[in-house]
Write a structure and sequence with these properties.
Length: 333
């Protein structure tokens, strides 16, 4: 049975506001909360960038649900610090925290002033970080000299059960590689056929039988026009292919790159509709692909309405398996 989380977007809302939305999501029947760790928003229009790790401690105390965060160790963060931060949350809130690790974006990592490595080197660095984090969680004293360096590191406070390490992947190539080392996969709601390729690649690479997480980018509002216009306003900087998303270095560059994106272009990349049945049909496709943990990110600013309506009309239908219509697999509109 699939579980549905509310995605707390630190790039779009102040941390205090996101705490309120997380509490509302719990009351509405969502099963968890996800978040991402950014230093910058994707655009000047989004305009926020609260520190996810500070927020997680407060939010997990206030909301008794599982939480997860996506972050990129290796440049902005030393892996021993991420291991310590995750271990602390997992000790305080047993079996309620998961962490997704990816190779990152220059947008966030470039603040260190270090050179931004190639994708191949970033992947190698990520795998080193994963191995270091797991060793620290196991109580080992770690010394490592590679793309990252660790000298005699040991964690004294560790959870009885370490957090799940979820591998973040956008492309089928990365998903296949992630299948070889991650406990689970997390990806985003690509067009259906590409998403199917990502799933198959993950399973082919060693992910058969492992959990799969999906972040669904959707726009729900009172009417179709509002859903479309606000998706375009807030999220048009986020529709580019992976090489561009990972290599641009500032919100201003993302805004410049997105200046020719038209509202109708958004339909291919964001599930836009004011019809709850259409959203139910789309989400049912993802369940049928094998995603067990689905995080819903309403990319517009209408969070309260989204939480209330989805809690009342969408989640109960999907959990109970009632009134499902046969979805169109290819169309996004």
């Amino acid at each position: 049975m699939a579980k549905f989380s509310y995605h707390a977007s630190h790039e779009q809302f102040k941390p205090s506001e996101l705490l309120k939305y997380a509490q509302m999501a719990y009351q509405a029947g969502f099963n968890g909360i996800s978040s991402s760790d950014h230093f910058y928003p994707w655009s000047e229009r989004q305009g926020e960038s609260g520190y996810a790790w500070s927020w997680l401690g407060a939010a997990m105390q206030a909301v008794p649900l599982p939480f997860g965060v996506v972050c990129a160790p290796g440049q902005r963060y030393h892996p021993a610090i991420i291991a310590q931060a995750a271990a602390t949350l997992a000790e305080m809130f047993p079996q309620r925290f998961w962490i997704a690790l990816g190779s990152g974006q220059a947008l966030n990592e470039n603040i260190t002033g270090e050179a931004w490595p190639s994708k191949e080197k970033r992947n190698a660095r990520l795998k080193e970080c994963v191995d270091i984090i797991r060793a620290l969680w196991a109580g080992e004293t770690v010394t490592h000299n590679g793309l990252v360096r660790v000298e005699m590191a040991k964690l004294y406070t560790r959870p009885e059960i370490p957090p799940l390490i979820v591998g973040a992947a956008i492309t089928p190539q990365t998903a296949e590689w992630v299948g070889s080392w991650a406990d689970a996969l997390i990806t985003v709601s690509h067009p259906y056929e590409m998403l199917k390729e990502v799933v198959n690649a993950f399973r082919r690479g060693g992910g058969e039988g492992k959990a799969m997480y999906l972040k669904v980018q959707l726009s729900y509002a009172k009417d179709e026009e509002t859903a479309l216009q606000e998706a375009h306003e807030q999220w048009r900087t986020n529709i580019f292919k992976s090489p561009l998303l990972t290599d641009l270095q500032s919100p201003q560059q993302f805004d410049y790159a997105a200046q020719f994106v038209k509202p109708d272009d958004m339909y291919e990349f964001v599930k836009i509709s004011s019809d709850t049945q259409q959203h139910i049909n789309w989400l049912q496709q993802y369940i049928e692909l094998g995603f067990e943990n689905i995080s819903l990110h309403n990319v517009n600013k209408q969070q309260q309405r989204f939480i209330e309506v989805f809690g009342e009309k969408v989640l109960p239908t999907l959990v109970q398996g009632k009134n499902l219509q046969t979805p169109s697999l290819i169309t996004s509109r």
